[in-house]
Write a structure and sequence with these properties.
This protein has about 450 residues and is an alpha/beta fold. Helices cover about 40% and strands about 15% of the residues. The strands form four sheets. A six-stranded antiparallel beta sheet has the order 11-10-9-14-13-12. A three-stranded parallel beta sheet has the order 1-3-2, covered by helices on one side. A three-stranded parallel beta sheet has the order 4-7-8, with helices on one face.
């Protein structure tokens, strides 16, 4: 239905089908809650976390922040509350912890009349709010064409009020939605009270509008898009992959935290992203690649972990599974991932490892997962030259006090298709434990630690 009619028209069809119920609004809200907060909650990356850390850092610097979202779920607000709770537990000065307010715009009377005071964060839900906990959701979710066009004027008024005379950062938006574009046009001033205003859009070149174009034309499309955004007084930033959007926000946030932004233009700055990545690589290579022992141990660890995961997800013995880890390889000179260890095989030397350029169009599923920056279920095409048919991949981050760095992917694969095997969305309730276990195994391999921690509960 979506392929035939498009998303918004398909939503209108679905909304009309709900009219058969005595309380269509309640049925829509409850179905949304079940979809939003089922096992899918485990399939998250670090973008949301990076957005919240960035907002909290700015708020602690005395800035007033508004987070505005068209989503219904409470992930944004929940992550914000979690971040504030952690600050409260570690801060010796209560006034250093930002305050927060939640506003759900259900009608014109709910439009915010003023922003939070200094060190405050306003969390605004434009299209209704369906919280995780049982209870009465707030606002009617905007679904179909009637809802969208009926709320157009209200959404435009809200965004104009938010943008007027303020800096704006847009994340996860293609900057094509009608109310958003018109609000940007209506608030184009470049400065306020003599102070320059910045309006920035993060637009990964991995988005659908870019994937449909041949790689050779993407640079030209980006230039044309930049001309359009310049007219809206918006500066575009084009990360190559989805994973880099969250990483970009993390890098800006850590520059604010450490106050070392000016040094980021220096090639030798030890806190630059590239420097941190290369420092990890050199230490990891020295510890793991000088002899064959560590790699053999990692093969064995993955073999044992695969058995633990098999039992947890209820995969029968006749279903062949494999668990493997890909790592960033020679990041000082290459932009590649390499297959470091696997539960089903070994190789005699480093030169026989499979590897590929980091690119979302890669034939290797683990490389695709790395570019996405979040856990993914992927199916292999029928024509592919591989026996493995279904995959679950999870990115691995290296966490350090000076900043996080994505350094690899751990993947679980099955010889069965996702619909008939154990590695598919239909089995996500059982696979949630597997995702946690996969992260632990991956971290042991890229960062050391006790392998036993990756094989036992807790």
């Amino acid at each position: 239905m979506i392929r035939q009619h498009g998303e918004i028209r398909a939503a209108t069809i679905a909304e009309n089908l709900y009219q058969r119920y005595d309380d269509p609004r309640l049925e829509i809200q409850e179905d949304l809650r079940r979809i939003l907060y089922g096992p899918h909650r485990f399939l998250h990356g670090r973008l949301l976390e990076s957005v919240i850390h960035f907002a909290l850092t700015l708020a602690r610097m005395g800035r007033s922040i508004a987070l505005v979202t068209p989503n219904y779920d409470d992930y944004l607000y929940d992550e914000l509350v979690t971040g504030i709770t952690k600050l409260q537990a570690t801060s010796s000065e209560p006034s250093d912890v930002p305050t927060t307010s939640l506003i759900v715009v259900d009608d014109d009377s709910a439009l915010p009349t003023e922003w939070c005071s200094n060190k405050g964060i306003l969390c605004v839900y434009m299209h209704g709010y369906v919280p995780r906990a049982p209870g009465t959701p707030v606002g009617m979710p905007i679904l179909g064409e009637a809802d969208y066009f009926g709320s157009y004027r209200r959404s435009l008024a809200l965004l104009k009020a938010m943008f007027e005379g303020r800096n704006v950062l847009m994340v996860g938006s293609s900057v094509t939605d009608g109310p958003l574009v018109n609000a940007l046009l209506a608030t184009k001033q470049a400065s306020k009270d003599g102070e320059s205003l910045r309006r920035v859009a993060l637009l990964p070149l991995q988005g659908q509008e870019w994937n449909e174009a041949p790689p050779s034309s993407r640079d030209q499309l980006a230039r044309w898009n930049s001309e359009r955004l310049t007219y809206l007084n918006v500066t575009p930033i084009y990360p190559d992959f989805y994973i880099q959007s969250g990483q970009f926000l993390h890098e800006v946030q850590r520059c604010l935290k450490f106050g070392d932004g000016n040094s980021m233009t220096e090639m030798v700055s030890p806190r630059r992203y590239g420097s941190r990545l290369v420092d990890w690589w050199r230490t990891w290579f020295e510890d793991n690649c000088r002899t064959s022992g560590p790699q053999a141990q990692h093969h064995e660890l993955l073999n044992r972990a695969c058995g633990v995961i098999r039992e947890a997800i209820g995969a029968p013995l006749e279903e062949s599974l494999k668990l493997e880890v890909w790592v960033r390889w020679r990041p000082d000179s290459e932009r590649t991932l390499a297959l470091w260890a696997s539960s089903v095989g070994t190789w005699p030397d480093l030169h026989s490892m499979r590897s590929d350029q980091i690119n979302p169009d890669s034939d290797y599923k683990s490389v695709q997962v790395f570019c996405a920056g979040a856990p993914l279920f992927l199916d292999e095409e029928k024509s592919a030259q591989t026996r493995w048919r279904s995959y679950l991949g999870v990115p691995i981050w290296l966490d350090r006090a000076e900043g996080q760095v994505p350094v690899g992917v751990v993947s679980l694969a099955s010889l069965k298709k996702s619909a008939s095997g154990s590695v598919g969305l239909h089995n996500l309730a059982a696979l949630d434990m597997a995702i946690d276990r996969m992260r632990k195994v991956g971290r042991v391999i890229v960062d050391g630690g006790d392998p036993t921690d990756a094989l036992v509960e807790g």
